[in-house]
Amino acid sequence: MSLTKQSNAADLARAIGIDVAAKHADSVDRESRFPAEAVAAIKKDRLLSLLIPKDLGGAGAPFAEAAEVCCALAQSCASTGMIYAMHQIKTSSLVSHGQQSPWHREFMQRIAAEQLLLASATTEAGIGGDLRNSICAVQTTGDQFTLEKMATVISYGKYADAILVTARKNADAPHSDQVMVAVTKDQYKLEQIGDWDTLGMRGTCSEGFKLICAGPAEQIFPKPFAEIAAQSMLASSHLLWTSVWYGIAADAISRAQAFVRAEARKRPGSPPPGALRLAEAISLLQAVRSNVIAGLEHFALAQQSEDELMSMGFAVAMNNVKVNVSQAVVQIINHALLICGIHGYKNNTPFSVGRHLRDAHSAALMISNDRILGNSSNLLLIHKHDISLLR
Question: How far is residue 168's CA from residue 179's CA, in Å, rounded to a whole number?
């Protein structure tokens, strides 16, 4: 099956999740390996070009559909869902800011035709996780550029077909005066500088690399990275990440509900001990779902106005979605663990949620909630928080 008028992206993703990703999720986690089987299925069904405009060979789907795919994949394998989310975050920036550039339009056609997997190199040694600052700089000579970056993390870097890299626009530019460059696999070399042996999200294979690349200067995005980050990357990152986290929590609660139902069948007429806690957990899960949906709707409205995308209020709202969801999912999955008890604590049972809990703990660290709250607190010093119920 492939993405056509007769098929739905979320249905395809659910089928990939059940038929492929779920079967390999435990080994992906245990071996800290790339979910090659699931990604191959995603490519086969042409889901990598979901957001690429139709005139460039993609599906031209709304952003919310990508969020639904992230959620569906994450219910089977969090690493697969996160890899898909990271790819679509980069694609969203490309679609939003590359359509006026002939090279970037042709690149989008390649993504659709060849189902290229995009990775991101925004973090760098020496900047403390602040993606809005760079030490490395693009060196331009004539119509060519070169760039070297000590990237502390490039998720699935070894397996990507292209990487979008941030750097200072030239050697004399301040650290915050950045550009973004798209480079294809034949244009860069990766020298590994760090490993990836982590608590969770092990299949994202987010090692560190020294990235060495060169190519035509036309591959540099026309817009400054500050505008790309504010107008597309901020919202797309927070909303697709939270869609993944919701998917992880939703599957954990599905397992907890199955456990409670099994217990109820054993003792007809007597409510299982975990029934009340299940009701509480589902209430929390519904609040997370509402938070993500509200964020998606806010983003869709904001995309109609560049001023709104650049506004402090929009940035604070997107930050709040990320922080709130990242905190809530751990609490929800912990409820599922308590409901399932030893059956949830043990690996390789139908009710195991250990992998879910470990994966969910990454949420507060991508980007650190402390950094995000710090940014929001600075914005709120000069921006009046909206206290109305309806816009």
Answer: 6
